[in-house]
């Protein structure tokens, strides 16, 4: 019984993360992301960008927030991060972040 309760709690904590964003609106925003991460979100080997497809929503959100706050993308030696930070700044609010993540989670791994 305890296992069932814990499982239900775990599911209830993850579902809102997926339901917060609008995947259709996120698809419209993903055009900017696709320039470096590819239209399928698998990253581009030619410029060594990471895969987004298959990443957990909480991880994607944390990274976007870290870029926006300057936690990532501000170190002088972080060339890729310095390119990513302005892109993250185009997501003007929490809803925009949730929307693009809602679209990314629809992409096949």
The rough form would be described as globular
Alpha-beta classification: mainly alpha
Q: What is the CATH level 1 assignment?
A: Mainly Alpha
State the CATH superfamily name: Cytochrome c-like domain
Strand content: under 5%
The helix tally amounts to 5
Low-pLDDT residue intervals, each spanning 5 or more residues = 14-18
Compute the number of structural domains: 1
Quote the CATH topology: Cytochrome Bc1 Complex, Chain D, domain 2
Rounded mean pLDDT score:
88
Instruction: Give, in order, the helices and strands.
Output: HHHHH
Biggest beta sheet attributes: none
The total of beta strands comes to: 0
Rg computed from alpha carbons, rounded to a whole number of angstroms: 15 Å
CATH architecture descriptor text? Orthogonal Bundle
Helix content, binned percent: 55-70%
Straight-line N-to-C gap? 34 Å
Task: Quickly list its features.
109 residues; mainly alpha; Cytochrome Bc1 Complex, Chain D, domain 2; 5 helices; 0% strand
Explain what the structure shows.
This protein is mainly α. The chain has one domain: Orthogonal Bundle (Cytochrome Bc1 Complex, Chain D, domain 2), CATH 1.10.760. Helices cover 62% and strands 0% of the residues. The chain is built from five helices and no strands. It has helices at 2-19, 23-37, 57-69, 79-89, 94-104. The longest helix has 18 residues, at 2-19.
């Amino acid at each position: 019984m305890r296992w069932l309760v814990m499982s239900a709690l775990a599911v209830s904590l993850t579902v809102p993360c997926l339901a917060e964003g609008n995947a259709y609106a996120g698809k419209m925003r993903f055009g900017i992301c696709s320039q470096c991460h590819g239209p399928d979100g698998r990253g581009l080997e030619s410029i060594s960008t990471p895969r987004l497809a298959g990443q957990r929503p909480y991880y994607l959100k944390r990274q976007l927030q870290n870029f926006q706050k300057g936690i990532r993308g501000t170190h002088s030696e972080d060339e890729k991060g310095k390119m990513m930070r302005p892109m993250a700044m185009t997501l003007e609010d929490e809803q925009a972040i949730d929307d693009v993540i809602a679209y990314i989670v629809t992409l096949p791994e």
